[in-house]
Amino acid sequence: MPTHFWRRVILWIALAVLLVACLPPVSPPTAPAVSPSSPRRLTILYTNDEHGWLVAQRNRDNSQVGGVAEMLGLWQAREGYMADGPFLALSGGDMWTGPAISTWFDGAPAAEIMNLMGYRAAALGNHDFDFGLDVLRRHSRAARFPYLAANLVKRGTTEPPDFVQPYTVIEIAGMKVGLVGLITRSTPTTTHPKNVTGFEFLPYADALARYVPQVRAAGAQVIVALAHVCADEMRALAPRARELGVHVLTAGHCHERLAEEVAGLPLLGAGAYWQDYARLTIEVDATTGQVSTGKPELIRNTAAAAGGPADPVVAGRVAHWQAETEKALGEVIGYTRTGLAHRSPALLNLVMDSWLQAYPTADVALSNIGGFRQGIAAGPITLGAIVDVLPFNNQIVDVVVTGAQLKANLDCCTSAVAGITYRGGKLLLADGTPVDPARKYHVLINDFMAGGGDRYLFNRQDPNPYYTAIDWRQPVMDYVRRLGSSEQMPIETFLDATPRTGP
After folding, report:
1. Using 50, 70 and 90 to split pLDDT, how confident is the model at 306?
2. Surface-to-core class of residue 499, CB atoms within 10 Å of its CB (0-12 exposed, 13-18 middle, 19+ buried)
3. Buried b (16+ CB within 10 A) or exposed e, 446-468
4. At what angle are helices 474-483 and 345-358 packed, to 10 degrees?
5. Residue 79 — φ and ψ, nearest 5°?
6. Helices (H) and strands (E) in the chain — how many of each?
7. How far is residue 222 CA from its own chain's centroid?
8. What does the pLDDT read at residue 27?
9. How far apart are CA 116 and CA 111, in angstroms?
């Protein structure tokens, strides 16, 4: 081509480069500017008593409820939730003791997934002690959020133990939020007593009076009492909390679903098992610092409510832990055609009869009803199903007590039994003979009860019990195996479904 053509091309390229160089720089897109006088706004997403229920459950009508991946998907679809957005995901404690998928691994799956979900703080719950202090410390160190309990101190001091903080202050959505934790004062009798002997559980109002001023001095504009405490106690605490400047109360421990106002403060309780969450919006006037709260709400975690898919990352981790559980506990040991309902006579009697079969020198077997955490679904019975029913790491203990002392425990506390019946005020041995108040009997209990758990009296009646080292689940597993139940001969065929205690 002619030389003048290339000169023309080079000239146009030079002009283009010069024009581009003269243009103003292009900035990356930014979020719309927020006026310094605009109110700061955030949304609290609250759950409590999660108990390691990672997998969605089925209702009697086969509808789906719960599930951690489903909960996170619901937050994302309904709330526009992002872990680094204007949201405060909070837990009211009792995070991991429950189904085998969490329990068998000492709560590690639930602890891991709560990190993935972006929780910012959790009240410590009584059942968070269940696997012992070493496990609690391990989870506390691995958590990306603090465990809080302002009323928990080392015995004889005012110092918190090393796995918990009294409070935290979080900067979020242009405001500072102070969270003061509270744990139920019933903890010494609602977890294994051996795990909390070195601690004291102080009055709630005293803890708030001590730490709320510190939280405010740290710059908190909004103050939340994040509590693993039943609603009736929180309602009683509300007027004092309001006087101290608390803006929001939560409840836990009693698995109550509530979204209400008391003494002018919103009170949140989200039931249990990730089946619900409580929602509350909070605004702070940037000029005056005035705090206002929206109306508290309860949202059910159902497939219909979600409006979007389960979170894939969390779903993947749940699938991993399901596979690990199947590997460890998937062996089929029996079959039930109808299922054994939670705390039904057939289920209670199955467990207690298995203890006496495993330790036939005892006269009676007795266990606290609270130790039975769920039923067994219809179909094959696996080792994991037994862990689901009895998730705590207890052993069987042989105590020697008089008939009168045995009756005192039955009067005190609701129990599952074998070897006796206690109905209509009559305490009879299995053969119908009345229990002799003066005679001594060998009674099998679990070591939680032997330590005074659930307010049983055995630790005062027999100061030298015999710890058998038999895991309380093992006799149940062995008994179910021996019965040899199948689809043709389900386990219901072999069980006594008659109530042994009651009016």
Report:
1. low
2. middle
3. bbbbbbbbbebbbeebbeebeeb
4. 100
5. -105, -15
6. 16, 27
7. 25
8. 35
9. 9
Q: Tell me the CA distances in angstroms from 6 to 3, 20, 463, one per residue in order.
A: 6, 21, 105
* Residue 303 confidence (pLDDT): 74
Q: In what order do the strands lie in the sheet with 466-471?
A: 415-418, 364-368, 440-446, 395-402, 466-471
The DSSP annotation for 419-468 comes to SEEEETTEEEETTSPBPPSSSEEEEEEEHHHHTTGGG-SHHHH-SS-EEE
Q: Which domains does the chain have, with CATH numbers?
A: 40-321 (3.60.21.10), 331-502 (3.90.780.10)
Distances (CA, A) of 131 to 245, 399, 458: 36, 24, 23
Residues 125, 196: Cα–Cα separation, whole Å: 12
Once rounded to an integer, what is the mean pLDDT over residues 203-219? 98
Closest CA to 424 of 323, 475, 493, 499: 499
Return all residues near 11 (Cβ < 8 A) that are at least 6 apart: none
Q: Is 380 helix (H, G, I), strand (E, B) or coil?
A: strand
Distance CA 397, CA 468 (A): 6
Distance of CA 395 to the CA centre of its chain: 23
Question: How many CA within 13 A on the CB side of residue 500?
Answer: 31
Q: What is the pLDDT of residues 52-80, one digit of tens each?
A: 999 999 887 888 999 999 999 999 999 99
Percent of the chain residues topping a pLDDT of 70: 92
How far is it, in rounded angstroms, from Cα 196 to Cα 441? 30
Note the pLDDT of residue 3.
43
The per-residue pLDDT for range 6-19, each reduced to its tens digit, is 444 334 434 333 33
Predicted local confidence at residue 40, as pLDDT: 93
Query: What number of other Cβ atoms are within 10 A of residue 80's Cβ?
Result: 11
Q: H/E element holding 133? A: helix 133-142
Mean pLDDT of the region 266-276: 98
Residues facing 466 on adjacent strands = 398
Mean pLDDT of the 14-35 span = 38
* Whole-angstrom distance, CA of residue 276 vs CA of residue 273: 8
